[in-house]
Amino acid sequence: MLETVPASDLKSVGQKTRRIDSVEKLTGEATYVGDMVLPGMLYARVKTSPHARARIVSIDTSAAEAMAGVRAVITGHDIGYKLGLYVVDKDILARSEVRHFGEGVAAVAADTLEIAQKAVEAINVEYEELEPVLHPKDALKDDAPLVHPDLGDYSYMEAAFTPKPGTNIANHTKLRKGDLAKGFAESEWIVEREYTNPSVQHVPMETHVAIVQWGKNDQVHIWSSAQSPYTLRNLFAVAFGLPHRNIRVEVPYVGGGFGGKAGIGIEPMVALLSQATNGRPVKLTATREEEFSLLPCRSQLTYQIRTGISKEGKILAQEMTMYWDSGAYADYAVNVTRASGYSAGGPYEIPNATVDAYTIYTNKPFGTAYRGFGHVEFHWGLERHMDLVAQAIGMDPFEFRLKNALKPGATTLTGEEITEHTGNITACLEKAAEMIDYGTISDAEKTKAAAQGKKIGKAVVGLHKAPAMPPFTATTVILKMNEDATVTANLTLTDYGQGTYTAVAQMIAERLRMPMDRVKVAFESDTDRDPYDWQTVASKGLVLSGNAAILAADDLISTAYGDAAQVLRARIQDLDHDGDGIFLRHHPDRKVTWKQLAIGYSYPNGNGIGGPLVGVGRYIAQGLTHLNKETGEGRPALDWTYGAHGMIVAVDPETGEYDVLKVASVFDAGRVINPEVFRGQAIGGMIQGLGTASVEGYIYDEKGHLLNPSFTDNKIPTAKDIPMEIEIFGVETPQVDGPYGARGIGEHSMISVAAALGNAIQHATGAEVTHMPLRQEDVWRALNRKVAIDNWITKSPLGSCKSAVELQKYTCD
Amino acid sequence: MKTVHFKINGEAYERDVAEYKTLLHFLREDLGYTGTKEGCGAGECGACTVIMNGKAINSCLVLAAEADGAVIETIEGEASGNNLTEIQQAFDRNYAVQCGFCTAGMVMTVKDLFRRAPHPSRPQVVEGIEGNFCRCTGYEQIIEAVLDAADHGAAAEIAARDAGETKEVSDA
Fold it and tell me: Are the CB atoms for A782 and A772 separated by under 8 Å?
């Protein structure tokens, strides 16, 4: 789909066209599910578990049922269906046992929200508390309680995953490349470390909302804040054994998702409440607290890396072990494990490597997709590790990265060969270094920092990610020409802020050679009316839907050329078009306008030909394969987007306080379709990354109670927390099969930001932090060689081995 | 139930409202002003910001009954026909909107800021919008939009509208 048209000839693509969704959002007219009220609608509330693990002895709902205005009360006992994306392991409401704090045990539908809340409070659940398993490494012990004793009976996607019945392992992803032992034997240095991240919450400003009406003849109508209407429909149909055509999913405007609204969430529970009220529409709006524990979070990760390096500073071998804390259910965590498994080495060439990535059940709120899909988490460890390795071997970390960066001719961990079209990590690293003036600290910088008692540190980090998706992922765009020669496009990719619909509109305008104001991309999605799209995840939207949009436009043009050839009595090969119409190349005055063709051409005597102009574009990822389950070999990547961040921090070496002075982010976007939308994604993701790097994270007590499910105790960045200077740059190495050469960057902006912070702080002060987040007190502890505080249940392994340039060879104990 | 009177975006309302109902839920559920959003219900995120008696407030922290008699401004009162306000135009021009869920509260906060500081400095803008969370944009393009709106006379436009409304009231 690569267009060789020079950028200067493009009219819409590459331009700063306005977002197509600004006005309705700026005026309050955009309708989100929470704004909707249907006739006869009831309101739902959920009774949640106060325990991390307990047997449900009894549930007494009689008082709730007796309350005026209560229309239905359901408990897990009434429900025989199970849910699961890849491993079907989740009850819609807990049945005999609760497996995490905040899990739903009963739900109520009532005339008002207030009645529903009172009814939930009147439900009496008797529990027998059981010892929870909270730490993923504890969960691997032989005598650990099993979160899912019936794991062996669950169905799962066998082509991609490997659960281990009789253990807490929901999946083990394996990768083997080259000869690890030989690589280590030939290494001059071996450096081994462990890095940890806590669970974090996505925090879309709009919490999860769903309205469901289970009508007669099992016709189910769902309105949801879902990212992926078709996947929601599919999972719902499979769970309830209903034909897909019975289920209609409508998704209006959505207030942010970040992965947390992919898959299926509260919809089945709400559907059962509707069924229990004889088909009345029921609405459930998750509270902010429920967003933290009833709904899923991002998984905690413990990442061990052991690296062998040659005398010249080349990586010869790397052994990587990931312990992904899935929480109580496998959900997306098994696929996060798989995706981070095949990407685990980052944008570097590693000739001999092994990866063992485990998804581990514990009694905590479960993990799901989150912007970056595992890559934010493991790049924290990997990019800290690259710095610590460089330090240990006495090499500049930037030079070390350049030396080991993937270049044309190199192979990835899965055996895919890198070409000059793959994208250019070296260019990204070099540009980021240039943007922060890496390698020198100017007198002005020193003086300014010293005035505040601070020291300057600079760091450059790399990153990579490919869309994590099934190898046959597909989408469709339908394009219709209206009577006045404007066009309307339908697709079911959800634009919850990314700006993809604007980019798709730009490509359609470009193809039809029309101005942007003649192109509409219809915002609300409806599975009854709009064509299939797999999911809105993985930064695959721009590439797949963009290609489908181009094909839809070409299809419409081709149909129109057929009609025009007849009208103009010309050969199709001699036709060309502009925004006004279709004409003969050698006689441009012989022309039929789009308006004349739009709904069918009519001759002066009334005869009609053609018909309404429609274009269909369907696109499926090509050439991808499943991975070999023993070696990880195969082709998982639609495209690799590379990037780099440069960061400048000023750190107080006494107190550990720090300011982020500048972040420079660079991505090889292939082609930047809209520079300001690109910039918005780059900055937004970077700040989200900085939030998780510096302050966000779940805190549990020893019984597994989540202690901070609110904005009071779990801060996210405000306008005051952003760096003083932000600079964004797009490298453009065209992707041959990308639309106009483009790649997605929506997730990438968040990846490696935390490592940039950790590395810059270490360069400024020597503070060596290997766990996230880097709160200022954590920096102080590291500066004073104090053991890190274990807030996250996960023990931080800080200081397991000391970096020392003079040591030629060392390993951890 | 209590009978309350409000003037909302220049329109007079008389309604019976339950004592427990917040101003946010009263606006959204009883009057259909759904442009104002609920992000946390605890006064932390600013998504529910409206202007009450000339001051930006979290409408999730105010009971409708205790606000009886108030003059309220919400997002629905900003644009007129196809004419966006200078603030709205600047947000559009500067890509300050992504998912849109914080937008209404952000715009009302900025309107309040312009009444107090017609030509705010960047630190004043940052301070001004600090109470409004945005998870999508990373704030930079919002800050740029507010500074751009100031350059396009947003404060003067607000002052002129305020003068017009005061005149209308005195004429009546």
Answer: no
pTM score, two decimals?
A: 0.96
Residue B89, H or E segment: helix B86-93
Distance from CA of B27 to the nearest CA of A (A): 11
Q: Could you tell me where the beta strands, DSSP code E, fall in A499-655?
A: 519-521, 525-526, 575-577, 581-584, 587-593, 599-602, 608-612, 614-620, 641-651
Using the structure block, give the residue that is written with the tokens 């695959």: A540
Q: What is the DSSP letter of A411?
A: B
A318, A308 in Cβ contact below 8 A?
A: yes
- Spatial neighbors of B111 by CB under 8 A, at least 6 apart, are B51, B56, B73, B78, B85, B87, B158
Residues 6+ apart with CB under 8 A from A429: A398, A401, A402, A405, A460, A462, A644
Contacts of A677 in chain B (CB under 8 A): 95
* CA A769 to chain centroid: 26
Q: Is B79 near chain A, with CB under 8 Å?
A: yes
Selection from A228, A222, A334, A218 nearest residue A268 by Cα: A222
C-alpha dist (Å) from residue A430 to A401, A666, A729 = 10, 9, 12
3-state SS string for A675-707? HHHHHHHHHHHHHHHHHHHHCCCCCECCCCCEC
Residue type, A469: M
How far CA A579 is from CA of A506, A518, A593, A615, B114, in Å, comes to 14, 10, 9, 16, 43
Q: Which residues of B touch A711 (CB under 8 A)?
A: 40, 42, 44-45, 133
First-residue to last-residue Cα distance in chain A: 52
The set of residues, in sequence order, having a beta carbon less than 8 Å from that of A379 and lying 6+ positions away, is: A346, A372, A461, A463, A751, A752, A754, A755
- Retrieve residue A245's tokens: 């055509």
A391 touches A457 (CB < 8 A): no
Decide: helix, strand or coil at residue A312: coil
Q: Which of B43, B49, B27 is nearest to B106 (CA)?
A: B49
The pLDDT-based confidence of A2 (bands split at 50, 70, 90) is low
Residues in chain B predicted with pLDDT less than 70, given as ranges, are: 168-172
Pull the structure tokens for residue A314: 């080349």
Tokens of A743: 């790649």
**Alpha-carbon radius of gyration of chain A:** 28
Contacts of B99 in chain A (CB under 8 A): 25, 204-206, 253-256, 496-497
User: For position A808, what pLDDT does the model report?
Assistant: 34
User: What is this model's ipTM?
Assistant: 0.98
Contacts of residues A436-444 at CB distance under 8 Å and 24 or more positions apart, as own/partner, are A436/A460, A436/A646, A436/A647, A436/A648, A436/A662, A436/A664, A438/A398, A438/A646, A439/A396, A439/A398
Q: Does A746 touch chain B (CB under 8 A)?
A: no
Is residue A568 within 8 Å of A762, Cβ to Cβ? Answer: no
Q: To which residue do tokens 């998804």 refer?
A: A359
DSSP A717: -
Of the candidates B42, B104, B142, the beta carbon closest to that of A28 is on B104
User: Looking up tokens 């008696």, which residue turns up?
Assistant: B53
E strand or H helix that includes residue A401:
helix A397-404
3-state SS class at B20: coil
- Average pLDDT over every residue of A208-224: 98
Contact B105/B36 with Cβ under 8 angstroms? yes
Nearest alpha-carbon partner for B61 in B12, B111, B25 = B25
| Per-residue pLDDT band at A7 (split at 50, 70, 90) | confident
DSSP letter for A32, please: B
Measure the CA–CA gap between A627 and A172, rounded to whole angstroms.
13
- Give the Cα separation of B145 and B139 in Å (integer): 10
Q: How far is B7 from chain A (nearest CA, A)?
A: 19
